[in-house]
Amino acid sequence: MIGDALGRALAAIVGERQLLQRPSELLAYATDGLPGYRKQPALGVFPRTRDEVVAVVRLLARANVPFVPRGAGTGLSGGALCDGTVLLGLNRLTRVLSVDVENRLAVVEPGVVNVHLTKAVSIYGLHYAPDPSSQAACTIGGNVAENAGGPHCLKYGVTLNHVLALTVVLPDGEIVSLGNRDGESSGYDLLGSFIGSEGCFGVALDATVRLSRNPQAVRTMLADFTSVDAAARATSVIIAAGFEPAALEMMDQPTIRAVEASIYAAGYPVDAAAVLLIEIDGLAAGIDDDAESLRTICLAQGAREVRLAADERERARLWQGRKKAFGAMGRVSSHLVVQDAVIPRTRLPEVLRTIAAIAERERLTVCNVFHAGDGNLHPNISYNANDPDESARVHRAMQAIMRCCVDAGGSVTGEHGIGLDKLDYMSMIFSADTLDAMCRLRGVFDPDRRSNPGKVVPIHSCREWTQVPSLR
Amino acid sequence: MTGVGLREGSVLSGGDPARSAPHHHAGTPTAPTAHQVAHTADVADAIRDAATSGVALRISAGAGWLGAGRPISAPTRVLDLRALRGIIEYNPGDLTLTARASTTLAEIEEATRPHGQWLPLDPFGVETDTLGATLATASCGPLASSLGLPRDLALGVEFVDGRGIVVRGGGRVVKNVAGFDLVRLTVGAWGTLGVITEVTVRLRARPEQVVSVALDLPDTPAALAPLLRALREAPLTPIAAELLSAPLGAACGAGTGAADVVVVRLAGNATSLTAQRRQIASFGDARDVPESTWDLLRRAFPSGAASVRLSHRPSRLAELWFDLATTSRDLSGELRHASVERGVARCVMPDSIDGTLSAQVAALASRWTVVGEQLPPEAWTCLRTSATDRLSDGVRTAFDPGALLNPGLMTSRR
């Protein structure tokens, strides 16, 4: 057990009010964005300054106590769950420390909410490009840990492509700088290794991120198809034709109906088998030519209609339906399992057909809402977790869907991470030797495996595995 | 911009690795025969042999590895990867390509061009540069400013680590966050964490139309800074924008040699290009230059020349550009170029082999981020070696505990 002495020592650093110890207080931290798991932290500590974070990490290192760094807890792989150890909340470090407008970069604390950064720099005509659907709540620190994506990553790249430097406190308390904000980086790409390490390599104290210029013009269109196959084919044709849309999203009929029945109704055609939400951006000159070319492609691939958003209000409405689709599914059933897999884009039609067959076999409704442009699928199943038979069918279906994506040459996660939820899938795509190499890399940053223990790589894969330090 | 002329100054020449042994620094004992490998398993065998014999390996791809002039301490045997060649999978609809390490950039260009696609890596050197070496050295050229660095384009990598274990990081899809990132780790590691045997890269569609436009540059930092700022802030979507010193501009067909120039490579549809050219014309006397300028630029550098890259935030590029000009003025025949968007300048100094270079590099390193590409051994000591911190040492030890792979290329110690 984590004893009172540790609690007192932590309170001495952060103050009593920033320390949660009662089970009732910790209830809110027993889950993250992925329903279906519940893990109780022993205590939660919420430092408000960088110095407090460092002091907490050093105290935990001296006491040899494992901890789980957590941003907003919106992750979808159970990565921020904390089982009987110390939960280290970074969501109170919310300052944008500096903005360099001319060089388009900002230095932020880890608890800055993704969309708050964009709001803070919008007066300069800039924005922060990675835009996960949870961007109204998720933090930059969490985005760094997960190498978060989002719809616009199709054109602009994921978090990895937007972080220039990090200051990190390693699990042993040492502070290191990764990357370089004043020029090129050289040497081993430790920054690239840290991004996406899901909290297993240490805690980011600040991040220097790249800001992007707001595009001069944006065109958003909704293409409406009578078959999923046709929508999937249109996606492949658009990509192969050399268009680089800012975003290219697909929603199938179950998703459309869930959205249209919710407060997020976006005016999607409820009788469509699938819609594509396509956005292009860039210079004003020539953008309408590209929009027209895309419209032609969609119509040639069998779209009934291609509707161009007339103004910013209509564009926002089209996007709200997409970004809140997971939330809309909450109305359908008490539980939702959100899957995340990636396949080569040309395999979309056949993989979607297989997913439909799996759903039919298991008597389940799968809602597909995903980043079609980069082949990043999100098949979701609404169900009642209190029904053991239905739960078993959901579990079987998810396994089968993942197997189908891997067999198509894909990956088990495009943006949600492995966390706790996908540990079992890792050996589907990585050999024992590769998993061991990942363990060795982790060992460089966190030899004692105290930071977010038990996540990402199944522990038995680590050849030189030793017992995770016992709690005291 | 930036990059390493992979052919230049190789410790090992491509034609006959054994013959190049005399180019090692005097006194370095070298094993006489090279390991010839054709499969990943052969690489693993060679590494295990090295572990047994204690003779380290110098990895040599198609055109020969760049030793960069670093002082090499350990005896080495050549690991010749030239037979590890060929495209394994290319599905144009997916815009991804998987190839063995010694596949040349020219072969990839040949395969992708008919499909209107390309791998937008244009490192300085020759077309026989290999994919594996380009990634291992993180080499890139002017296109990197808009289309990505090698780390951004690498999706998956197979490598054999210093214990002879075959590891496959990443995958063949364009988006992937499964597990800890072994791809970024190997890109730019100069083979010191593992011998890259296979790579999957993201391709791009070639732009519908491309046109390159040049402007003469003003000759003071005070006048250059606002121009560079305007170029970065104007409604333009260049795929490259590169400053060239006057002689380099002339050699590449982009200038008369009377002034430094900036060459902007614009891409887009016809309407967009018309608007962008009008925009550039508002900055000065713009003239079209042939697309061959970019090929000439890649090949403009004499082999074996000393070269360094300097960088800082892009807003300081004008200052950096003139500081570099002043500092390198004594080095005859020096060639300079720089990426407007990235704020990275490169200086190639063909005739600088004397002691003054060290002092100049040291002076520059006190003001700018300096990355050495090719330097005489004594000049390397002026640069803070980039991989001597605890984490870098730890990574090296974790993946190559015996320091068998390219010893001396990342740190002076190992």
Explain this structure to me?
The complex is a heterodimer of chains A (472) and B (414). By secondary structure, chain A is of the alpha+beta class. Chain A has helices at 4-14, 23-26, 50-62, 114-121, 140-146, 153-156, 190-194, 228-240, 253-260, 287-300, 312-323, 325-329, 348-361, 388-407, 426-429, 432-445; strands at residues 19-20, 43-45, 67-70, 86-89, 96-100, 105-108, 126-127, 163-169, 175-179, 203-210, 212-213, 217-225, 247-252, 274-282, 303-308, 335-338, 341-342, 366-370, 376-377, 379-383. Chain A has 16 helices and 20 strands. The relative contact order of chain A is 0.12. In chain B, helix 7 crosses helix 11 (317-328). The longest helix of chain B has 14 residues, at 40-53. Mean pLDDT of chain B is 86; it is low at 1-32. At the A-B interface, helix 7, helix 8, helix 10 and helix 16 of A face strand 8, helix 6, strand 10, helix 9 and strand 15 of B.
Short description, anyone?
The complex is a heterodimer of chains A (472) and B (414). Chain A has 472 residues and is an alpha+beta fold.
Helical residue percent band of chain B: 25-40%
Q: Characterize the main sheet of chain B.
A: 8 strands, antiparallel
The strand line-up of the biggest sheet of chain A is 15-12-14-13-18-20-16
**Using only CA atoms, what is the Rg of chain B?**
21 Å
Q: What's the overall average pLDDT of chain B, rounded? A: 86
- Rounded to the nearest angstrom, the radius of gyration of chain A is 22 Å
Helix content of chain A: 25-40%
Question: What is the percentage of strand-forming residues of chain A?
Answer: 15-25%
Number of strand elements of chain A: 20
- Biggest sheet of chain A, open or closed, and with what strands and sense? 7 strands, antiparallel
Percent in strands of chain B: 15-25%
Which strand order spans the largest sheet of chain B, edge to edge or round the barrel? 14-11-13-12-16-17-15-18
Overall geometry of chain B comes to globular
**Unreliable spans of chain B:** 1-32
